From TrEMBL:
InterPro entries: BTB/POZ_dom (IPR000210), BTB_KCTD7 (IPR057891), KCTD7/14_C (IPR057890), SKP1/BTB/POZ_sf (IPR011333), T1-type_BTB (IPR003131). Residues 1-35 are annotated as: Disordered. Residues 1-11 have a biased composition (Polar residues). Residues 51-149 form the BTB domain. It comes from the Eukaryota. It comes from Cyanoderma ruficeps. This is BTB/POZ domain-containing protein KCTD7. The keyword Cytoplasm applies. One of its GO terms (biological process) is membrane hyperpolarization.
Amino acid sequence: MVVVTGQSKASATPDDAMSSSDAEDDFQEPATPTATQAGQALPLLPQQFPEVVPLNVGGMFFTTRLSTLRRYEDTMLAAMFSGRHYIPTDAEGRYFIDRDGTYFGDILNFLRSGDLPPRERVRSVYKEAQYYSIGPLLDNLEDIQPLKGEKVRQAFLGLMPYYKDHLERIVEIAKLRAMQRKARFAKLKVCVFKEEMPITPYECPHFNSLRFERSESEAKLFEHHCEVDVSFGPWEAVADVYDLLHCIVTDLSARGIAVDHQCIGVCDKHLINHYYCKRPIYEFKITWW
């Protein structure tokens, strides 16, 4: 190791002249850190974990066994604590996961003993299970309420491929009208009908079912668009108009949109002869604040 004294060049005498090698040592640039030095700043892979693992998940502290985190191989937690990836630690040495830890306890309880969260936390825990890719937990949650009912509801809504687009249209129209009027609410007309063909009182005595066959030429005579902002239907399912209205209100409310609706009549547009459109028309009131 070269020891550099405090003597400057200006005070040096010819007899004290340094060799070229000494001069190079005196003025050499800082050396590139060695692998050993770099390892002191950032642990080298693979990372070793203790049998009991302290965790800091978004500022919430947990302690669990390493085997619990590795319970299911095809999960993010198993991959994170496999030793193949570097996990940072906080000032206290806890392994840090940059994720909200509110429902992480429910994740651990399932990994430990298969326990499922109470109903009011099912949806939130489901999102966390998706993030951590815990397939067995996702499967279990999907088989209980409210997610099981949601699967049935989505199967019904799948009959209407433009359902989400129509919801967006409701929101956009209501927002535009409220901004134009500088009002805290907006109203719009929505048609919700289950049957393809218009129904009139005159047809009831002649048909035992609301669904009946017409020729292609006759069907065209009944084709029309009700004078509304958005129209939902038709569909083939046991679920009726009120069920779809419930879905619309539920999905808008889930987005924080306050909505009220009431039936204000039927389309009543004259089509041909004694046939009139009897599709129900609803007034939706969207309140913005």
